[in-house]
Amino acid sequence: MANRKLHENSLNPFFDPQSIAVIGSLKEGLFGGLVVIRSLLNAGFKGEIYPVNPSYREINGLMVYPSIKDVPKKIDLVLIITGARSVAGILKECVDKGVRAAIVVSDGFAERDEEGRKLQEEIVAIARQGNLRIIGPNTAGIANPSKGLIPNPYEMGYEKVKQGAIAIGAQTGMINPQAFPYGDLGYGVSKICDFGNKADVDECDIMEYLEGDPSIKAITLYLENIKDGKRFLKVSKRVASSKPVLILKSGRTEQGARVSASHTGSLAQDDRIFDAACKQSGVIRLNTFRELFELPKIFAHPSLPKGNRLGIITFTGAVGVLAIDEGTKYGLTVPLLSSVTRNKLDAIFPGLGNRIVDIGPPMAVINDYMSFYSEVLKTVVADPQIDSIFNVIWTGPSGEFVDNYLKIYRGFQGNRKPIASWIYGPRLSYAQEMARHLEDLGFPVFSDIEMAIKALGIANQYANRLCHNNK
Predict the structure, then answer these.
(1) Where would you tag: which of 54, 78, 152, 154 has the fewest CB atoms within 10 A of its CB?
(2) In terms of C-beta distances under 8 Å and separation of at least 24 residues, what long-range contacts does 271-277 make, across chains too?
(3) What whole-number distance in Å separates Cα of residue 215 and Cα of residue 254?
């Protein structure tokens, strides 16, 4: 087995290396070592980059070395993109060189066949003996935008990943920059890690490493199996007591569990046991791949809800009712607003001060509804009866209100109550533009009503758990 007793070792060489060696093909294309090097340079990586390939002398202005042994300086991280059978020999050279971290992008290991499984066991044995940690094999690697560290082996199509407060780990490269449009979205991430086959570094290692990082507000994981159930329960329970841990696990069905074995060499597990472990440890279990990216955004807000009382500002009563129904699933209630708030809203427009603050009726009478929208939002946010806000935004037919909304939201950047927004309108482009701008300001925007309400609901449930644990 690939289990090892080096869990106390820091994973810092993976996420904050001062030098990186890239071993593999340097040919032009959409995948390979040359793509890694250019991704690092484009992202602004400040450390040393050492290409390794005996067929080249220079690439992109960098000297190329015949082997890892020929690199004259210390190497913190090695990234390997070669045939599976050559990886063991390369890792032996890395051990001799004193390298402590290796990302093995190469596939053809336990996910392939029995021969591949034996190759995987061999590279793990080499690493264990040499005090070398491995991410992979069969991985798209890692990213740390704050350090300009994006050694992506696949062409991304953009250069930068926005720095944020969410860490993402997965047994799939679908979370990495070549697969997710981080460059077009306001979604910021702190660290990304594709575990690949989890021959060594696994979900427990990454949770322990991220636990002590104050810049990370939430950890979200996609898993196909759990290597060590007892350790997972112990680590996830401890980490989830200090920051949210959200997990999407595939292989819920017997057929899905069998297929996962051909993807990363995973072993089938009883999904009911995993579900019970999540409930016991306080892990938030996700249901869809989209939730993996969307729901954690609510935890990037500086504050959790103080209670379950939800304020709703909408342009249509139907959306308000849907939000109430959805909120009930997560223990959210929509209270009667305070008398002060009701009076202020009714002074703006008669009947506005209801449980659902519906701006639709005054819009039919007052053409310039933005003239009072700021006051409506400010009044509801300030209500002591409200703990979090679901705010609906209508962009208008020509996006004419975008600048006004942004000005209003800037005034709430110091607000201590979470605000989840949903944007709609006749033109998708305006809604997308608005969402990008709001998330740049630090306000999460969700793709639909249900996702926004669920985000506020799980934030409230997590806050309740923290409060209960601290008593």
Answers:
(1) 54
(2) 273/229, 274/226, 274/249, 277/226, 277/229, 277/232, 277/233, 277/236
(3) 38
CA 136 to chain centre: 19
Q: How far apart are CA 254 and CA 453, in angstroms?
A: 31
Q: Are strands 19-24 and 48-52 parallel, antiparallel or unpaired?
A: parallel
8 pLDDT more than 60: no
In sequence order, the β-bridge partners of residue 19 are: 48
For residue 270, what are its two tokens?
């009883």
Percent of the chain whose predicted confidence (pLDDT) is above 70: 94
Residues 123, 88 contacting (CB under 8 angstroms): yes
Q: Give residue-wise pLDDT tens across range 14-37.
A: 999 999 999 999 999 999 999 999
Beta-bridge mates of residue 424: 394
**Closest by alpha carbon to 460, among 306, 328, 292?**
306
Which residue stretches of 16-130 are H helix? 33-43, 84-97, 114-129
* Per-residue pLDDT tens digits for 93-103: 999 999 999 99
Chain segment 241-264, per-residue pLDDT in tens: 999 999 999 876 666 555 544 444
Q: Give the model's pLDDT for residue 364.
A: 84
> Could you give the domains of the chain?
12-298 (3.40.50.261), 301-469 (3.40.50.261)
Q: What is the pLDDT of residues 446-457, one digit of tens each?
A: 999 999 999 999
Please give the backbone phi and psi of residue 163, each rounded to the nearest 5 degrees, phi first: -75, 135
Bridge partners (DSSP) listed for residue 114: none
Q: Which distant-in-sequence residues (6+ apart) come within 8 Å of 220 by Cβ? A: 166, 167, 168, 169, 245, 246, 247, 248, 286, 292, 293, 295, 296
Angle subtended at Cα 234 by Cα 105 and Cα 226, rounded to the nearest 5 degrees: 35
Q: Are the CB atoms for 405 and 377 separated by under 8 Å? A: no
